[in-house]
Design goal:
It is built from no helices and 11 strands. The chain is an all-beta fold and 116 residues long.
């Protein structure tokens, strides 16, 4: 049973102030799952994008504006945003404090296409 540690995963900068750790994916032995830990600093964002698969985004810490399709709604710790495959989504942190999101995909090879 593999035990994966975030401290052993290189951080990827998605955009200024937004960092992502790929905790689970094909490079770590997964066959059908990707999990990312994303931290969005105050004043930063996750650019709007689409995926060929659905994505569940669990808000672990903070408060953040979620963009889904043409809608924007403020979400906070304990809530989950579900983006269907092919639907534009992203986040903007206007809260004054960092937000943390767990991104979960039903594929070991997550693909992302920026749309804005």
């Amino acid at each position: 049973m593999p035990i994966l540690n975030k401290k052993d995963v290189p951080v990827e900068e998605l955009s200024p102030g937004t960092e992502r750790w790929a905790l689970v994916d094909s490079s770590k032995g997964a066959a059908s799952l990707s999990v990312g830990d994303v931290v969005v600093a105050s004043g930063s964002d996750v650019h709007t994008h689409i995926h060929p698969t659905e994505e569940a985004m669990v808000i672990l810490e903070g408060e953040i504006d979620a963009i889904l399709g043409q809608d924007t709604v403020t979400v906070s710790a304990g809530q989950t945003v579900l983006a269907p495959a092919g639907v534009r989504h992203g986040f903007v942190n206007r809260s004054g404090a960092p937000a943390r999101i767990m991104a979960i995909f039903p594929t070991a090879d997550m693909e992302r296409t920026l749309v804005d």
